[in-house]
Amino acid sequence: MAKSSVKTSKGMMIDIGISEKDRAAVAAELSKMLADSYTLYLTTHNFHWNVTGPLFNTLHLMFMTQYTEEWQALDSIAERIRALGHYAPGTYREYAQLSSIKEPTSVPNAEEMIAILVKDNEAVAKTARAALKRADAADDQPTVDLLTQRLDIHEKNAWMLRSLLQ
């Protein structure tokens, strides 16, 4: 049977019923989720500031709603990584290495912003789905719950954004 407790730097044991190996694997997947989520947050906030055109007000408000929700989620993801006994990534360098999302290199027009955010929300959903599979295999229900909620939000955001392009 895999040992499920590990000493922390102060000698406290982590014994939550999930092996260290499984906690490390789930934390690694959550770190990718955090990196994708942070990159999406930055992109959405950037587009909120810089959107122009006839849909300005609609997109400005929609982007604000989405980046505000995403900002709140970052803390939940990072705190779950910590609860599993691992450090959460927190630098741009780490996020650039871990994220499946590439930052835009210029300010696109409004329609391109929408298309980028559809693609980026779908990327976060795929990352969440992969992490969810790992968490489920580890019988890590709190992480499964967190990721299920994130999946719902990103799939809904992608749908709403996609609808603007049809």
UniProtKB/TrEMBL annotation:
Classification via Gene3D superfamilies: 1.20.1260.10
Lineage: Bacteria, Pseudomonadati, Pseudomonadota, Betaproteobacteria, Burkholderiales
Keywords: DNA-binding
PROSITE patterns documented for this protein: DPS_2
Presence of the UniProt keyword Hydrolase in the record: no
Pfam families noted in UniProt: Ferritin
PANTHER family tied to this protein: DNA PROTECTION DURING STARVATION PROTEIN (PTHR42932:SF3), GENERAL STRESS PROTEIN 20U (PTHR42932)
Family per record: Belongs to the Dps family.
Organism: Eoetvoesiella caeni
GO molecular function, one term: ferric iron binding
Domain spans labelled Ferritin/DPS: 28-166
Keyword DNA-binding: yes
The protein's name in its UniProt record: Starvation-inducible DNA-binding protein
